[in-house]
């Protein structure tokens, strides 16, 4: 398996193992998650011999739990995500696996991805969905490392929920796995002078987050945004939408989200190298909250 296919397959497995819906346009094995899905005319047909891993269903597998990719002893797992240690008794969710239509999904191979990522950078940027996937990938990759002290945050920052970014270095492979917290992927700042008192903050739809300069040159970029684009986290908190020096208080959240993604798309096409970087983008994950006591 070449480097391109390994990246594409490994990150598909990551997204599926996180129980998140994988939502990319139709792809072939060589162009998956590079730049084609950013173009309007990029819809591609699947070669007969290829397998579209994004189409399939969740199936119950009694033996799947015994082949878990990592457990709660992973040192990079946030305490809030340690389900068993926090009292969750039902582990049936671990026995569901993704079964693509017409083919099988290979098991994730930590050593293989580490080797193919040597001297590289893997970047997650966005909301908590990306944070979860970042932590999950860290734990998955530890299975290919014998000395965990060779994995560390380059600035000495602890792995905890905070505003900012975290860069984990895998010293043996000279690679980093990075997370940048930017829930809107856009700049959030103070409103222009003489704005209405109702405007506490503005989301600048035509400006990508300041962290974007740090994303340039990464080999793999996984962007997540969507869950913060709702009235509770925007308009109801006094956060309105700004383009240039003008704040639009009547713009809907959906329209603002659409415009912000156009800004992100323009930035990606103008700043990332299609011969080097793979791009994944996902928005909303399924909501499965239940009021159970």
TrEMBL record:
Keywords recorded for this protein, A-Z: Membrane, Signal-anchor, Transmembrane, Transmembrane helix
Protein name: Protein trichome birefringence-like 9
Subcellular location, principal: membrane
Domain Trichome birefringence-like N-terminal stretches: 50-104
Membrane association type: Single-pass membrane protein
Keyword presence, Nucleotidyltransferase: no
Xref: InterPro entries: TBL, TBL_C, TBL_N
Cellular component terms per the entry's GO annotation: Golgi apparatus; membrane
Family: Belongs to the PC-esterase family. TBL subfamily.
